[in-house]
Specification:
Layout lengths: L2 H5 L5 E6 L8 E6 L2 E5 L11 H6 L10 E3 L5 H4 L2 H6 L6 E3 L1 H26 L15 H9 L1 E3 L5 E5 L2 E7 L7 E9 L2 E7 L22 E5 L10 H17 L4 E4 L5 H14 L8 E3 L2 H7 L11 H7 L11 E3 L3 H9 L5 E4 L9 H8 L6 E4 L8 H6 L4 E3 L5 E3 L3 E4 L9 H8 L8 E5 L3 H13 L4 E3 L6 E3 L2
Parallel strand pairs: 3-4, 4-5, 5-6, 10-11, 11-20, 12-15, 12-16, 13-14, 13-15, 16-19, 20-21
Antiparallel strand pairs: 1-2, 1-22, 2-3, 7-8, 8-9, 9-10, 17-18
This protein binds zinc ion.
Zinc ion (ZN) binds next to loops.
């Protein structure tokens, strides 16, 4: 018996440190004997509460980790990695090559936002006050990228002497993966699958999610438990009608969209309408430098795209190019849209209107009854997007005076990149009747409970909704 097996508990386990009973800050710690593997290291993004402390302080020593596996590039899954590295983590970060290219852009942008927030927080405080220190810097992001190890979909890799990793396509955003770990423990072998964020079948550009890998413990997302998304084809038709009505009355169409995923999906959809001669001859402005840079990553990773998506990117009209499609970089160009009188379509971040250039466009157009704001993302309470949807005659944007809400505000939720209730049931139903523990994460309590109830009806007997800090063993 060697030293390692003396310290190795027979049963590996996982502790849910973020994204448990909530949708941001995903972070799950797998312990198998002396090994520690972290699944995702996301930024907790809810405003207020103890978000700030949770992002700053890890509930474990980052130096004790052997490996990190990253499911995909969204900030609520990747955004605290530079802080992990800042606090001493020096091991490998396993992810797909596309995810590595995407976090290069997204973490740099996040470091810029951290610096801005720290500068704002330091106002009126004494020099050196911890509140004025950024969570991490561009230098920390550089160090993080140096630790990334690219893993192709399907390849089996030893990441510690007793843990093997395989990534399979999750179909959620470019490069997104489900994580499959095979752990040799004691005399046996245990398998753990983490879905990350699970995509939907039939979405443009990406491939359908792969089957969920077989396992003893399944950590599944449940964001849209109990909810149904409309099919994407139906969304395109609703988009077409809304745009035509707006342009006919001389207004602008404003579409707040996240830079990774939703922007490319919506611009792809608009360009498909254009190819079918169903879109008025007005320009489309994508006013988000980050979204522009992210879009350029797609052609570098055909291995993560659907064959149709790859083919469409080779044509003259797609989400990257076309006669009336303009990606805007400079602030001056962005400002010039404010004085533009002619109808147009503006797609800009952020998806909830909480940051980015979309706020300026909303401020300039929200009281114009000819305009339409099309919300294509989930809008959490108290965000600007949520306040726009509220049945109130006025809205306050960026701390200014109350403005009349005379523009039409419409929510089109069918563009979501997440599996809905039926998709989740379909993905998880092959586990019915098997001795699999299912832990539902990345969802608030009500959607999680609705999905858990339905999974039980479908023959999955051991389904739980872990709380933050809870440990579940792989028996
Ligand atoms: Zn995601």
């Amino acid at each position: 018996m060697n030293d390692e097996s003396v310290h190795r508990p027979a049963i590996p386990n996982v502790t849910f440190w973020g994204g448990a009973g909530e949708v941001t800050g995903t972070m799950h710690l797998v312990a198998a004997g002396p090994r520690r593997v972290l699944l995702d290291c996301g930024l907790h993004m809810e405003r207020g509460g103890d978000s700030r402390r949770r992002n700053r302080e890890f509930p474990f020593d980052p130096k004790t980790l052997d490996a990190v596996v990253l499911s995909h590039a969204h900030i609520d899954h990747s955004g605290n990695l530079p802080n992990l590295v800042r606090q001493g983590y020096r091991g490998p970060i396993y992810c797909t090559a596309a995810t590595r290219d995407l976090i290069d852009l997204m973490l740099m942008d996040s470091a810029r936002i951290q610096a801005e927030e720290a500068r704002f927080a330091s106002l009126g405080r004494p020099p050196g006050d911890p509140a004025g220190v950024a969570l991490y810097t561009a230098q920390d992001v550089h160090h993080t990228l140096e630790l990334c190890v690219s893993v192709p979909y399907g390849k089996v890799m030893d990441i510690t002497p007793d843990i093997q990793l395989q990534l399979v396509d999750a179909g959620h955003v470019l490069g997104s993966a489900m994580v499959s770990l095979t752990i040799t423990a004691g005399n046996g072998m245990k398998r753990l699958t983490f879905t990350g964020d699970l995509g939907r079948p039939g979405m443009p550009l990406l491939r359908d999610p792969a089957p969920v890998p077989a396992c003893d413990l399944l950590i599944s997302e449940c964001t849209y438990g109990g909810q149904r998304h409309e099919p994407i084809a139906k969304m395109a038709e609703r988009l077409r009608v809304l745009i035509k009505q707006t342009i006919d009355r001389g207004g602008k169409v404003l579409i707040p969209a996240f830079s990774l995923g939703r922007t490319q999906t919506i611009v792809h959809c608009l360009q498909q309408l254009r190819l079918a001669h169903q879109l008025p001859e007005v320009p489309i402005f994508v006013d988000s430098p980050l979204a522009g840079d992210i879009s350029l990553i797609f052609p570098k990773h055909p291995e993560c795209m659907s064959p149709d998506g790859v083919r469409q990117l080779q044509g003259p009209v797609n989400f990257l190019q076309g006669p009336l499609l303009h990606y805007i970089k400079s602030v001056d160009e962005s400002k010039s849209l404010n004085v533009r009188r002619e109808p147009c379509i503006i797609v800009a971040s952020s998806g909830m209107g909480e940051g980015g250039r979309i706020r300026h466009h909303l401020k300039h157009n929200i009281d114009d009854p000819r305009c339409t704001v099309i919300l294509i993302s989930y809008q959490p309470r108290e965000t600007l997007g949520w306040r726009l949807l509220e049945r109130r005659p006025t809205v306050r944007i960026m701390g200014s005076r109350e403005q009349n809400k005379w523009a039409d505000v419409v929510s089109l939720r069918g563009f979501s990149g997440h599996a809905d209730h039926a998709d989740l049931l379909h993905a998880l139903s092959p586990f019915a009747g098997q001795p699999v523990k299912v832990c539902l994460v990345h969802g608030e309590y009500e959607p999680a409970q609705k999905l858990a109830n339905d999974l039980a009806k479908h023959g999955l007997e051991d389904v739980s909704i872990p709380e933050r800090g809870q440990t579940v063993s792989l028996v």
